[in-house]
Structures are given as structure tokens and as C-alpha cells.
Amino acid sequence: MSLDADEVARIAHLAGLAIDEADIPEYTTNLSNILELVEQMSSVDTAGIEPMAHPLELPQRLREDKVTETDQRELFQKCAPKVERGLYLVPQVIE
Amino acid sequence: MWEVVIGLEIHAQLATESKIFSGASTAYGAAPNTQACAVDLGLPGVLPVLNKEVVRMAASFGLAIGANVSRRSVFARKNYFYPDLPKGYQISQFELPIVERGNIDIELEDGAIKSIGVTRAHLEEDAGKSLHEDFQGMTGIDLNRAGTPLLEIVSEPDMRSAKEAVAYMKKIHSLVTYLGICDGNMQEGSFRCDANVSVRPQGQQEFGTRAELKNINSFRFVERAINIEVERQIDIIEGGGEIVQETRLYDADKNETRSMRSKEEANDYRYFPDPDLLPVELTDAYLRGIEATLPELPEQKKARFITDYSLKQGDADVLTASRALADFFESLVEASGDAKLAANWVIGSVASMLNKENLDITDSKISAEQLGGLLQRVIDNTISGKIAKDVFEAMWQGEGSADAIIESRGLKQITDSGAIEKIIDDIIAANPDQVEQFRAGKDKVLGFFVGQVMKASAGKANPGQVNQLLKQKLAP
Amino acid sequence: MHDKNVAELSAGLKNGDFSSEELTRVYLNRIESLDKDLNSFISVTAEQALAAARIADQQYKSGTAGPLTGIPIAQKDIFCIQGVRTSCGSKMLANFIAPYDATVVTRLNEAGMVMLGKTNMDEFAMGSSNENSFYGAVKNPWDLLAVPGGSSGGSASAVAAQLAPVATGTDTGGSIRQPASLCGITGLKPTYGRVSRYGMIAFASSLDQGGPMARSAEDAAMLLNAMAGFDHHDSTSVDREVPDYTGNLDQSIEGLRIGIPAEFFAEGLDDGVASVIQAALQEYEKMGASLVDISLPNSGLSIPTYYVVAMAECSSNLSRFDGVRFGHRCEDPVDLEDLYKRSRGEGFGAEVKRRIMIGTYALSAGYYDAYYLKAQQLRHLISDDYKKAFEQVDVIMGPTAPSVAFDIGEKSDDPVSMYLSDIYTIAVNLAGLPGMSIPAGFVDNRPVGLQIIGNYFDESRLLNIAHQFQCETNWHKQVPPGYE
């Protein structure tokens, strides 16, 4: 499977990544090579094989419904790029 | 000639103390981001752990609608970027939801019963909130709501009018509040709905292209939003146009729906099983345990009210519309000892007062026990029903208990025949013309005398006694 | 002092031969003078280390010290430590001061260990050479032209050069074992679920596992004792008793059945490495073990399977780095999309972006079945191969990596050839099994690691088997010239 520049641009958009125009050819080559490696998977028939999402065959453990967390806004917002009056600021969201 | 097709996706916020995957509080109205813990913020390295109550609540809902509660359900990630979605994905359920295939019966206007299919109900986390005002052209993000547990209840496209949609939504609302799994508060967004609306020519098999109306948070708006959207779609089609599949927002102020630009782009959510969470496995014994503790549901309660309290179908409908109202009624029956009187009061005075002040039964300024005290005074003839209404208003204004108000205002009914006789004698003496008329066979004049006596006694004379004594004294 | 093992250091501290503060200064001085060449640390936390050492010294005085109290350790920069920059090797988190402690960090603090600093790594643990770090490549102390392996290359290099007695690492597809092999140290990836992942910045959640990196199996066992255990913050953490991993070290391995998978000795394995591994296996035979030929027929597909699973998970795990709540944010974003795309485009390096893009693609509409679902099915087959093998044998052995450390720059332009260097390690992560790498010899003065793979929760046995080898051989005692 080989990708073209448009597909690389589409994937980058879906992945929320800005890619420099100049780097697109390199990404196109590298990603196509990786996909070629990945294509080897199709050599095995996996019809009827249960997909394995997880190495452990265990069920989800459940937590008691208790409030255990306290307000740590000040601490958490120390590492935030832009906050005002306790809110995280982003460019305007248009709905 | 146009048939309307509606399916609803209802988001019911589950009434837990803590969030679905973290120990942060779900309490409404806290200062921004003070209830967003490390997990809710999606800080690097944090992991989700599922809240036990959330599973119990979803399973209760499934059992209550006769659905299949999955013995094994899986959480998946729904990937998209949005500032109110901290991790860049929402943890939801996709291929294996916890509840599948149930039914809800609704009553149509003509009294017929229609069954609406519930395709599925799945657990997911809520997103945060965007605040647009007052940040120099920027948007502020509050993540307190992020991670609040939601049960998304998805219906089949079985509804054929806005009225049916409202009836369905009300039915679900009553069910989740009965179960105690959702507080049902629509102003705070605890219960909200998206409506998928399309139209097709009568008789056509395939569905028309649908529009999704987002986040409608009142019963009234659901009806209006759907009707206005249906009109819009019919206008377009009849004008030779085509409906675009899109997400639309209902603007209640302008009573119109409009396209949401931010969601315009076709999304590819890339769902896949969340590797941080393992499958939720429920045993038969667990489900039997939940079934055994399910509270009485609206239909069962209605039937019981009709049998136990000899209520009329219509009254039972009203009284079981919400669990809180039904509980109030039953407490009142216990406090007063008279079911019929209790029903009349709840449906009458209590309902109209709540309506006037736009309050919920849970906000009633008179408790069922207090009101029971008032009703007892009616039953034991201390006051008349009419006076009781005045006492009720005074109680509502916080003037104290029924007995205290009756006492302080001197409202005790006059049952002493001597006292009533004296009033009657005075009135007979003062109105000889009317006495003549009555004795000449004009029975209606009795009403005049009753009115005069009641007036003279400031309404306190026992009406039964007044009637009886008047008849005796006016007899020729 | 720096040439002593952990047990000796612990005894020295207990006997008062030296204080933890003195010991800590020895290592801080070594880092100061020797790490300029190696670049194995991203941050050195000298002040905090000395403060912790003084507390440890108090604990020795008051009699409350444990076996690891006062022992210095280097932490891979993937573990969140409150108040300390936690960069994960990325520009994205260059200014991220973590506001909380990872569970592993809490446990090690409780054990009284003294953190010297945060070690260099491939960005977000994505790499096999440590060249993908925003903070520069790490050098291999055995040869400064060679890579140390990755992604825990900083930890491996630091332990090999004796800049720290022990270090933490994480292993998603070989990131503890492969650098341990390339740097000539002992590294253990525990069973998935044995060590908490809470606070360990996620690369691929169903594969990631933290573990010890040390100069011997005994040291690794002591460190694992403190790292392992159930954590209620991690849904994938297993609630199972933690044995004393030092308890079985001295047991005889007489009668041990060692599985030798044909697929691990096929084309692609360097001849020199093959000879070293053969010699190590003969050593085990001498010790009373028997070698059993086995087959892991789906091994050939483990690389594509692994990369699809890992990239799909990472594409989603790394979505939270969006410039809103923490991490790099681009200058003056014009709108929301610009904020996301430029913050992420600038904050992530090329390999991370490649993996996010392939993962995004593998999960996208129309490709999910052919890529992601297919990989999950193959994961099942690969995992079953191991389950069957463990019906026949007690452990599986083979090379950790197909070659010794390669030169810096040799594979950095070709991601696919880089991925192939994980060929022997990644199936272990797909299956969730424990695996170790221990020093077994040299080729051209570069170390060779022997990989030992165990059944689920068999860490004790692995450590015992490794320790017995280290009782008979001196490979683990070799120190790179210039770092004695």
C-alpha cells in the first residue's frame, strides 16, 4: 500500500498535526514503507480468530462511588499555557 | 402527505457522588475547574477506573425496560479534538453497550398505546463546558462536568410526531427518576436530548435524510424544535431542494434551527476498545440482585394507586408522573388517612401553587406531613374545605402549622348549635320578605339564607349544620 | 563505592561505612563529570537527591530503614514526579512540571530511594536507539559512536557507566531489554499488570510495562520488590501477591527446560551474536538445564502486528497533547484548528508524528478491519504460540536483539530497518509475558544480551535463572573502559 501526498495531508489533518509542505514527500515515503511492512499481515488468514485487545483475561475492577479528590486547580493550572479566572483559554469556539 | 420520522438520543446524567472514572465530585455549580481532578483533565500518565454505581444504575435501567443487560460490555474511545474534551477522545461504549434492545410504551392522544423501541443504552463520560463571554475574543473552558457519568439512551426511529417524541421523552424521564439513577433536572442539563428528524412521503419505505438537533433541554423545546425542523425540511423538499445530513442547533429565542458550523466536517471517530479499561462482566446473580431491589416503576405504581386508593385512571396518571410526586401523595395519605382527599389536594391546590411559583414538588414549601395536619382538621370538621384553602395559603407563606394558623386566626368551625341558631334567628328576623318567599315554595331562597349565615359567621359555621337548622326554622 | 552492588551498598549504609549523602554525592559527581559525553540524563535533581539522602540517613539512625533506603536511583523521564520536570524526551513537555507522582515513584519514595535525576529516552518511548530524543542522542558507554538502544537508552547508559546503581525503565516492545542488551546490563520487563502504569506517560496502553534496570539480577530483584504491586489507580493492575523476588535467587536450576525457538536463530541474526548466545546456552546446559527445540510459528508477523497495535493506541493516547491544559502551545494561534495543529506539529518530533499518523490511518473508517482488527487477531495467534510453548518448557531463551549496538545515524533515516531491531522482543509485549535481558558476552567490544522469557507472573523464576548464570559468569561485571 502506497500513500500519495494528498492522503498524507488528509491523515495529518485527522491526526491534528501541522506538517510542513516541504516535509510531505519524506512522510509520504516513510509512511508508505511502514504500510508496506504492515501489509505482511494480510498473508495470514485470520477468519474466525477472536481479536485480542488485551494481554489479561480479566474483567474490569469497579471503584466505590466515593469522592476522593479535592480541589487542586491552582496546582494543575500552573502547567497550563493560558488560563484566566480559573478557566483554560482557547481561540474562540464557534458553534 | 408527509410522514415525520423521529428518533431520540437521550443523555441522562447518572446521579452518582463521584465521576465515572475518577473520584472527583459531580456536584453542580462549583467554581470553574475546582472539580476537575488529574484524571478528568487527562494529565499525562493518568488512568481511568470505573465507578461501581454507574454500572448498577445502567443495569437497573436495562432491567426496567425489559432490555438485554449485556453480561460483557466494552468501553471504547471515540476520538476527536474539541477543547471541552480533555483527552482528545471520549470514553464511551460502541460495539458492546451495557444495555441492548428494550421497549417503552407511550400513550397517544387518542388513548392508544404505542411501543417505542430502545435500540441501546450505553455508558459514557460527559465533556466540559465552553464559556464564550468576556475573554477578549477567546473561549474559556471549564472541565468540572468532564467525566460526569451519562447513560445515553438511543431509541429506534419509531416516533411519528413531535407529540410522540415528547411523550417518549417524558416516559424516560419518569423512569430514570423513579429508578433514582438521574435527578432529571433539565435546567442543569442532567437530562437532555438530541433528536434525529427526517420526513418522507406517506407510504415510502426508505427514510429521508435526517438532521440531528442537538442538546434540547426542555420538553417544550423538543416539541417546538421538531415541529420547526419538520416545517423547514418540507419547505426545502417541496421547493425542489434536498436535505443535507447535518447537525443543527435549536435556538429557542428565535424559534429556529440552524446548522452548527463547528461540527460541519464529517467526523471519523476512529472508535476502538479502550486499552486502559477491561471488559465489564456481569453475572446472572448480580443482575438478579439488582432486579430484586428495583423500586416500583410508574406503571406498577399507577395500577396499585388505582386498586389501593380507588383513584380514577386520570388522577393516578397525574400522581405517578414523577416518583417525587407519588411519594408526596403517599406520605399525605398516611398523614391524613384519606386517600381521596389527599389526591384532590395534591392535584388541586398543591399542583396549582407549584405551577404558579414554577417549583418542583421536591421544592414544595409545605411538606406532606404538614399538609396532612391540615387535612385532618378538615376531616374532623374543625374547619371547612373552603377555610382550609386559606390556611393552606398561609402555611405556604410560612405562617406555621395548620393548627397554629387556625388558632391564631380564630378559624375554628362553629359546631355549637346554640351559636348557629342564634345567628339564624337574627337573619330570619332581619329578612321577613325572603322568609315569606321560601314558605311560599321558592326553595332557592334557602341558598340566600345559607350565604347570609356563612357570611355572618365569617365562613366558620359548619355548612351541614347550617342547612339542617335553617330548614327546621324556616318550616312553616 | 560506585562499583558495589545494591546489597553491598545497603549493607554499607546499614553498617555506617558511609552515609547516603556521601553515596549520593559520589554518583552526582560521576554524573557531573561523565555524563557530558553520554547525555544519559535530561534532568539532574541534585538538591532534591541530597535532601532525600539526608532523610534516608536519619532513617538509618532511627532504625526505620529498609533494604533500599538511601540507595540512589535514576528515573526514566516517562514517570511523573511531582514538582519535577517530566519531559518524556519531548519538546511537547519541555516545561511540564508534573503535578503528581506516578505510583512507581511513590513506591520507590516509600522504600527510601534517592532519585538522582530523570534519564534520557526516545521521545514518548518511541524508538530503539535513543536518537529520537528532543534532548539529543544518548551514547553507549562501551563505544561513544554506538547507540545505547531505546527507548530506555538513558537508563541503560547511566547504569552501564555506573552513574547510578539502578534505574527504572519502561518496555512497550523491548524498551528495557534491548537497551539492556546493547549496554551490557540486566533489565526485566515484568508481566503486564505487575507494575502500575499510573503516572507513567502512556505510549501504547496494552503493551507498556515498567521494570528495573540494573547491573545484576540480584539488584533487579531488589528493585522489582519495591516497584511491583497492585494499584487501585490502574484498572489493568493485577491484584496478586508480590513474592520476595530475592527469595528464590539461589535455587538450583537443575532440570530446567529451556525452549529454543527456531525462529529466533533464523536469517537476520548476526553470526557473532548467535555464537555468544550458543555459548550462553551451553553454560546453562552445564548447570543442569536441558534445551528443547520449539517453534513460535507466527513470530514473523510480530513486527507488523506490534506496530499496528502500538501506533493505533499511541495515536489516541497522544491526542491529549493539544496545547490547552499543559505542554507546548504554539504562538498566537489564529483559531482552534491552528492551535491544535501547530502546537502538536511543533511539539512532536518526526518519529512520533509518523506513528500517530499510521495509527490514525489504521483506525480510520475503511481501514480498521484490515489493519487494527487484523492485528488484534494476529496478536491472539502470536500469544497462543507462547501459551503452547509453555506447556513444553519452563522458559524460552534466545538473543535479545539481532545485532550488537549499531552506530549512531546508521538507521535513523530508515524507520523500517529500525523497527526490525525489535524482532525478538515485541512478541513478549503482545502476549503480556515477562522477559529479561542479561549480559552474555561481546562482539567487537559491544555487549550481547541473552533474552529469557517466562510464563505469566514467573518473574521470580526468571531472576533465579539469571542470577544462577551470573554466579557462573562474569559478563555482568564488565565495566566499559573509562567508567570503572
Précis, in short:
The complex is a heterotrimer of chains A (95), B (476) and C (484). With 95 residues, chain A is of the alpha+beta class.
Attribute tags:
heterotrimer, A: 95 residues, alpha+beta, two-stranded antiparallel ribbon, 3 helices, 9% strand, B: 476 residues, 9-stranded mixed beta sheet, 3-stranded antiparallel beta sheet, 17 strands, elongated
Structure description:
The complex is a heterotrimer of chains A (95), B (476) and C (484). By secondary structure, chain A is of the alpha+beta class. Chain A has a domain at 5-41. Chain A contains three helices and three strands; from the N terminus they run ααβαββ. Chain A has a two-stranded antiparallel sheet. Chain A is flat, with a radius of gyration of 22 Å. By secondary structure, chain B is of the alpha+beta class. Chain B is 41% helix and 20% strand. Chain B has helices spanning 38-41, 52-64, 162-178, 219-238, 284-292, 298-309, 313-319, 323-336, 339-357, 368-379, 385-396, 402-409, 417-430, 432-439, 445-456, 463-474; strands spanning 2-13, 50-51, 68-69, 72-73, 75-79, 89-93, 99-107, 113-125, 129-131, 138-142, 149-155, 191-201, 211-216, 246-251, 256-259, 272-273, 280-281. Chain B has a nine-stranded mixed sheet. In chain B, α8 (323-336) crosses α10 (368-379). The longest helix of chain B is centred in the middle third of the chain and has 20 residues, at 219-238. By secondary structure, chain C is an alpha/beta fold. In chain C, β7 (257-261), α8 and β8 form a beta-alpha-beta unit. The longest helix of chain C has 24 residues, at 369-392. The chains are: A alpha+beta (95), B alpha+beta (476), C alpha/beta (484). Chains in contact: A-B, A-C, B-C. Chain B binds chain C through residues 38, 41-50, 77, 79, 81, 83, 86-89, 141, 268, 270-272, 275-278, and chain C through 79-80, 86, 88, 93, 96, 98-100, 102, 197-202, 204-206, 232-236, 312-313, 315-316, 318-322, 324-327, 336, 340, 360, 363-365, 368, 372.
